[in-house]
Give the backbone structure.
Amino acid sequence: MRWTLALLSAIAVLFVLYLLRYVLLPFVIAAGLAYVADPAVRWMMARLRLPRWVAALVPFSLFCGALALAGFAVKIYVFPQAVDLLANREAILDHFFNTLLRGKTVSLDGGKSFTAHDATQAVLHAINSVGRQPMGLFDQVGIAFAVVMAFIMTVVLLVYFLIDGPRLGRGMMWLVPPALRPATQVIAGRAGPLLYRYVCGIIVITLYATVFTWLVLHFALDLPHAILVAFTVGLLEMIPLIGPILSILLICGVAIEQMTLASIIGLALFVIALRVSIDQFVGPLILGKAVSLPAPVIIFSFLAGGAIYGLLGVLVAIPVAAVIKISLEEIYRRDSSSDVALPLRN
């Protein structure tokens, strides 16, 4: 009966979280950032004898400064390249398909044929058809307003989580039934370092992939739109397993415009260096064993999280899967330790 009630309660909680999936996104992002900054806040409270609200303002100020710097960099470097890419999309696609098809006309079944220009027009028609989907002015204003409010809400929530994080954690533990609190505290104690290293690792790996990709594409390979590609590659690194594959396809798609023997060799060496440095050095050094899950479990968690909860599911799929694994290990360990062998009677 106890586990049946627990299962029903978990299903009810998951259903409520599904209904609130878009509302929870700013809370999850702000909580993750506050969780990463919490050790620094505790250190300043212990060493400098500062009140928590004063110590919390230091990482918050650093976050706002980094956010402003990133926004300035996007406006100065990334945004102009994105505008240039959109303005010259037809010429870029023509060059891409001409290089891919080597200027030849491809014959299809039924006597039909198409050229590189035909392929370009087909892609542009598909893009324009998506852009012409009916969406009223009020819908567009509503989406823009929701994005702006979500951003402001994330910044505001970050202050509250930095200041009242421990109190909020104790409040969440109070919601757990008293009989389950000891096991929940053990699970939280094991999952805490895991989640901390995972969030920190994702941030470091994203920054590393962005900077390394920009340096190589801009200075070594001299590819167009290097900053835009590097920014996209860094964001894709947040998606486990699938993100790196999309990054490689994106880089190859950009590099095909300058397809020479030297560029092919340089691109292959860069892709190998990027993946080896992240998978064998940066990732294990930062993440450690934060996510010790099999690859099929990671892929399923990512796809299931995205299908059920959208962007929120993509962000929390792997940590949630790791916490479920820890919870099951703790439950099975307690159940096996509670089994007592009864003596046999003659």
Confidence is low (pLDDT under 50) at residues 340-346.
